[in-house]
Amino acid sequence: MLLKVTKIKSGYGKVSILHGVDFNVLPGQIITVLGPNGAGKSTLMKAIAGQLPVSSGTIEFSGTLTNGLSAQEVNKLGIGYVPQEQNVFAELTVMENMKVAAMPFKDAGSRVDRVMDHFPILKERAAQMASTLSGGERQTLAISAALVAEPKVLLLDEPTAGLAPIFVDRIIEWITELASEGMAVVWVVEQDPEKILTVSQMTCFIEGGRSTAWLESEILLEPGRLQQMLLEDKKCSK
User: How far is the C-alpha of 30 from the C-alpha of 153, rounded, in Å?
Assistant: First the structure.
């Protein structure tokens, strides 16, 4: 098991959001995370990434307990995280964003070069301010900056929300390629999940701060099955 989350509880200050989530990820898997608004999906990603404290339960990565580690320490272990918003430094150029992401590593320059070589669009925009990028370009930069750390698990929180279909397709193709090379990807999605379900192996439903169901993603592509599961989650959350 690459990532094992066992009955974790977490939240913001005295406000508890997660009430006992179980979550497992194998190398090369794409895991889709679904659930209603406010279910705790983003909170789960932040807790795994070390950005929120875990009050109880455990998170293990490659056999190492990550409870209590800082976000930077978790990142250096091999867990990358791309939040839905504020995921780039808008006041910096594309290249400066990449260099900031590489700062914790001794071979920073070569790491940036490897990622930039893989994405010509970033090379073309290297001197451009991140604030002037299109939505799709900005998400490409955010994911690329996370890849500088060469993570074994990549956590994505709604990376295609509001993007044009062409960018959605490109990011899905890109993530599928990364997974085929052995990287595990955990993908939170709320809008139009069908495209992501076609490339993911398993889907976890989060409702009321708990993991309520684990299903093979292909099952959810059966007519009416996804709507049925989402409706059941809504009923449970009332």
Answer: 10
- The pLDDT of residue 162 is 83
Name the residue range of residue 129's domain: 3-237
For the chain, which ranges sit under pLDDT 50? 235-238
Residue 123 and residue 203: Cα distance in Å, rounded?
A: 35
Q: What is the pLDDT of residue 234?
A: 54
pTM of this structure: 0.91
What's the CATH code of the domain at 216? 3.40.50.300
Please report which helix (H) or strand (E) contains residue 180, including its range.
helix 165-180
Domain count, the chain: 1
Confirm if 158 and 190 have CB atoms less than 8 A apart. Answer: yes
Contacts of 50 (CB under 8 A, 6+ apart): 66, 69, 70, 71, 72, 73, 74, 75, 79
Measured between alpha carbons, how far is 18 from 29 in angstroms, rounded to an integer? 23
Q: Do residues 237 and 39 lie in contact, with contact meaning Cβ atoms separated by under 8 Å?
A: yes
Residue 227 confidence (pLDDT): 83
Cα 95 from Cα 44, distance rounded (Å): 30
What pLDDT score does 119 carry? 78
pLDDT of residue 229: 82
Residues 2/169, Cβ–Cβ less than 8 Å? no
Q: Which helix (H) or strand (E) holds 192?
A: none
pLDDT, residue 170, reads: 85
Bridge partners of 216? 202
User: 206 near 197, Cβ under 8 Å?
Assistant: no
Provide the pLDDT for residue 236: 47
